[in-house]
Design goal:
The complex is a heterodimer of chains A (343) and B (174). Chain A has 343 residues and is an alpha+beta fold. Chain A has a domain at 171-253: Rod shape-determining protein MreC, domain 2 (Thrombin, subunit H), CATH 2.40.10. Chain A is 43% helix and 21% strand. In chain A, the strands form 2 sheets. Chain A has a 6-stranded antiparallel β-barrel. Chain A is extended. By secondary structure, chain B is mainly α. Chain B has one domain (2-173). Classes of the chains: A alpha+beta (343), B mainly alpha (174).
């Protein structure tokens, strides 16, 4: 026994070494269980606030450049507005209705990037809006030039976004012209190049085609720009095309982003889950019954309210009449008292 | 004792902030990023308690992980080099050195110090980037990241040494 204790004391650094390595590896592998690990990431409030202050300072330093870029963008937009107005005027002459503009029915929450990485296999972006602003995991994140990524985990005031530049990111996409669809993946290396895979062989593909979201997932609405095709290649099994796509979003300088908060549809998610796992059907039915019961209760409550309101109106009218009669018979006090007691 | 503790704590925070604010934003050629938090482990003098080296290494690694969303990767790598630092230092220490021999640019000499730091940094970066990639699919890129980052980190550490401890006599170069 004593020999064992001696051995442990003599080699305590080895035991400590193994313990610390095990702790590190547990952190490494439990990273996906995000509820637990949010304190060990940049979504934790202290670190998030630090980054917020730092990025505030650095954004102030870059303000001049930003202004110049903004001015250039403004100039371009002004030109574009002018051109579009011209086109609109031309079209309005022979069409009754205008085409709807870009999907404006979606509600977005603006946010700023406070930290991001570009050089790793699993890059992540931290933004300064969280659950308190209505952001939940699996919401889509876009910037002015294209889509950025998907919200991965959230804390109260910060969220971590898995950008397109992550080897685990997979976004369904389509070619704007031919509407053939595939999925967009990223491989380590360049921060502005991704690959659209699984595009069928019979699809007509050419360089400078625009790649956009196809709306199959409930994360992004269809038609949001992703990038432009710069190279056409075969997939490793030769069954489909593998397109090199230059991304529109400029990740190294990304700062202003928006999170689409209401495209996410729980009902659709539930239905899809149900199709995969019929065991969930019961819980869905129960929840539907519950919903019906709640609706009925609500209806009853509303009816009662309405009745009460009607009663109130009648009462108010009666009181008014009573007051009028009071005004007419001010001399006869006794009578008024009598009516009062009757009431 | 406490003065040593506080000086190490100060070093930890300075290195951490330099790493997070400056080095994390350097991506030379797209894949080289220096990990100067390794300097924390490099500095421990001979016969420092191994438990203390391990704990300091683990702490700076963990703090770095929290700031860069790399849960567990840097803490595992820093603990690894903290384990091997005393053995490596013994190889490079002259036989007649004092008990609390501190590895610096002046005491070890240019080449010995460079090799000592480079070996530790290769170990650190290899562990870090292998845990990051966690696959050998793009091994060329991983190896380039490891070697590039090790060399760059070593250069920065030597730069820091030159700044903090300027050479006194040319004789100490030998």
């Amino acid at each position: 026994m004593r020999a064992l204790i001696d051995l442990i004391i003599k080699n305590k650094h080895w035991f400590l070494f193994i313990l610390l390595e095990v702790i590190s590896l547990v952190f490494l592998f439990s990273y996906n269980g995000y509820q637990k690990s949010v304190y060990f990431t940049t979504a934790n409030d202290v670190v998030g606030t630090t980054y917020n202050v730092i990025s505030g300072i650095s954004s102030y330093i870059h303000l001049q450049e930003e202004n110049r870029n903004m001015e250039a963008a403004n100039e371009e937009l002004r030109k574009e507005v002018y051109e579009l107005r011209q086109q609109l005027d031309a079209l309005q002459k022979d069409s009754v209705e205008r085409m709807p503009a870009l999907p404006s029915q979606y509600h977005t929450v603006p946010a700023q990037v406070v930290n991001s990485t570009l050089h790793k296999a699993n890059n992540l972006i931290t933004i300064n809006k969280g659950e308190a602003d209505g952001i939940r995991p699996e919401m889509g994140v876009i910037c002015s030039s294209g889509i950025v990524g998907i919200v991965y985990m959230t804390s109260l005031h910060y969220s971590i976004v898995m950008p397109l530049l992550n080897v685990n990111s997979k976004v369904s996409c389509r070619l704007r012209e031919s509407e053939y669809f595939g999925s967009l993946i990223w491989e380590r290396g360049y921060a502005n190049v991704a690959y659209a895979t699984s595009i069928p062989r019979h699809a007509k593909v050419k360089k400078n085609d625009i790649v956009e979201t196809n709306g199959y997932s409930d994360i992004f609405p269809p038609g949001l720009p992703i990038g432009i095709v710069t190279g056409i290649d075969d997939s490793s099994d030769g069954m489909s095309y593998r397109l090199k796509v230059r991304l529109f979003a400029d990740f190294p300088t990304l700062r202003e982003v928006s999170v689409i908060t209401d495209y996410f549809s729980p009902e659709r998610r539930l239905l899809e889950d149900m199709a995969i796992d019929p065991a969930k059907q019961d819980s869905v039915l129960i929840s539907q019954e519950k919903k019906k019961a709640e609706e009925e209760a609500k209806r009853k409550e509303e009816q009662e309210k309405r009745q009460k309101a009607e009663e109130d109106i009648i009462k108010a009218e009666l009181e008014k009449k009573y007051a009028e009669t009071m005004g007419a018979q001010t001399s006869d006090n006794q009578k008024t008292e009598k009516t009062d007691t009757v009431r | 004792m406490s003065s040593i503790f506080f000086s190490r704590l100060l070093r930890l925070f300075i290195l951490l902030f330099f790493q997070v604010l400056v080095c994390n934003h350097i991506h030379l050629l797209g894949y080289i990023t220096p990990l100067i938090i390794g300097y924390m482990v490099v500095c421990f003098h001979r016969n420092t308690s191994r438990v203390s080296i391990l704990l300091w290494g683990f702490s700076i690694g963990l703090l770095f992980d929290i700031f860069s969303n790399t849960a567990g990767m840097a803490s595992a790598s820093c603990t690894l080099i903290a384990m091997f630092q005393p053995m490596l230092l013994d190889i490079f220490t002259p036989h007649d050195a004092a008990e609390d021999f501190t590895p610096t640019f002046n005491t070890l000499g240019f080449w010995n110090y460079t090799f000592y730091v480079l070996l530790l940094m290769i170990m650190l970066n290899a562990a870090f980037y292998l845990l990051d990639a966690f696959t050998l699919n793009d091994w060329q890129l991983t190896i380039m990241s490891i070697m590039g980052s090790s060399v760059m980190t070593t250069l920065i550490i030597i730069g820091i040494e030159l700044l903090v401890r300027p050479r006194k006599t040319p004789a100490s170069l030998s």
